[in-house]
Structure prediction request, 258 residues.
Amino acid sequence: MVNLMNPPCVLLVLHDVAPPTWADYQPFVEAVDALGDVPMTWLVVPDFHKHNSLDAHPEFRRVLNQRIAKGDELALHGYFHCDEEPPPGNPRDWFMRRIYTHEGEFYSLPQHAALARLHTGIEVFERYHWPLQGFVAPAWLMSEGTRQALRQLPLRYTSDSQHLYQLPDFTPIDAPGLVWSARSAWRRGVSKLLSDRREQHWQQAPVIRLGLHPVDMRHAFSRNYWLQTLKRLLDEGRVPMTKSQWLALQRAPVGRAA
Prediction:
């Protein structure tokens, strides 16, 4: 249940964080830092597309260490962020895995495979002494086996595009999110129209999530949208938080929320 005594919040979430995407994000992150104390949630991929293991990039790990020290949160975002399971066997799966995305890593994993991969990701965080509370599946796609695996792990939350789910029981909490499809000019135009409409509709929402992707950072139109939207929401009085910070407020008794 949402604690109505808490101020309205904004959660800035960077998807697909990995060594090759840091160059896309760095100018934007520096612009956000210039606004003041705006914590972010970084969705970290341990071995992006099987060619970018965090173990092989100590400089990037130092960046993440600095972000944690600054107050940011790191969450586990898949492990490889690519779908190499057997070909889809029905039209729905074909659409989800070949049209909607090619990166639905956890869309079709059975429970044992999902559990093993999640354990491997958790071990990466433990190796680098990174606090870990959340897991977000690439493209927010999870098989039933993945859901069952998450119930067995010491994680606090997962999410889809419009909710956060408290683990292990998957208690849903409304957390509407803006996200763009920025691969082409027409997609960016449509995304802007939809996002403006949704933001207007969510003016009274207790929280709004801004879900950024590396491709958004490669185009001035989308990059500027995210920065200006963040500034506007802050000017309207929304308090910036990480996902785990905001979830902690929802669990706190009304009279004791910090």
